[in-house]
Specification:
Keywords: Signal. The N and C termini lie close together (about 10 Å). This protein has one domain. The chain is of the alpha+beta class. The protein contains 3 helices and 5 strands. It has helices spanning about 1-20, 45-55, 130-150, and strands at about 25, 40, 70-80, 85-95, 110-120. Helices cover about 35% and strands about 25% of the residues. The structure holds 2-acetamido-2-deoxy-beta-D-glucopyranose (5 copies). One 2-acetamido-2-deoxy-beta-D-glucopyranose (NAG) binds next to loops.
Length: about 150
């Protein structure tokens, strides 16, 4: 009996640690690079590096030296006429950056913007493999729990 309780506690703790872990985002900074993006873990240093990148073409990026709140962003500029992507940025930002409210320095006409800021692992490429990964992990844990409790 106590053995089962112990195993449950360990499992729950393990799952808790997994979810409390830092945020991971899809990462790329150019339209061509975003065809095969990498990933990055959110931290003060990765978010600061991305802030520098965003500052290179936005005028009002707030200075945030560090934060405990991070978000994944997918910020895409494209020509509405032909939908060719001019600029694409995916990565980790400080929540306080409010990446979708940033103003472009270069106000050349004819650009449209799509922007997404979200707070779960790999949420920035509008939901591809992250959901299924969690579903698999979730069902494995459910099966384990069912076995332990039976
Ligand atoms: C950020 O750091 C710089 C220098 O490291 C400092 O001058 C500035 O006050 C800091 N800003 C905030 C909001 O902490
Ligand atoms: C990141 O910055 C925040 C705010 O300055 C600070 O509280 C936190 O400890 C920093 N995190 C790391 C890992 O340095
Ligand atoms: C798309 O349209 C914009 C504005 O009309 C133009 O500057 C750009 O060269 C076009 N891109 C392509 C790939 O046709
Ligand atoms: C991020 O900021 C928004 C509004 O500024 C807030 O609603 C949200 O709870 C914040 N997220 C986190 C993880 O702190
Ligand atoms: C980012 O968002 C844009 C616009 O919604 C989308 O076309 C693009 O596929 C997204 N990027 C990735 C890597 O999913």
């Amino acid at each position: 009996m106590w053995k089962k309780v112990l195993i449950c506690v360990v499992l729950v703790a393990f799952v808790g640690v997994q979810f409390a872990n830092s945020l991971t985002c899809t990462k790329c900074t150019t339209p061509s690079g975003c065809k095969s993006p990498s990933s990055e873990t959110c931290s003060n240093s990765t978010a600061n590096a991305n802030r520098v990148h965003l500052e290179s073409y936005h005028s009002n990026v707030p200075t945030v030296n560090g934060s405990l709140n991070f978000a994944c962003a997918n910020l895409t500029y494209y020509h509405a006429a032909n939908y060719s992507h001019t600029s694409e940025f995916l990565g980790c930002v400080f929540n306080e950056t409010k990446v979708c409210d940033l103003t472009l320095t270069n106000t050349a006409s004819g650009w449209s913007k799509k922007c997404l800021q979200c707070g779960t692992d790999y949420c920035n490429p509008a939901g591809t493999f992250s959901g299924s990964a969690y579903t698999i992990v979730g069902s494995v844990i459910a099966v384990l729990l069912a076995k332990v409790l039976s």
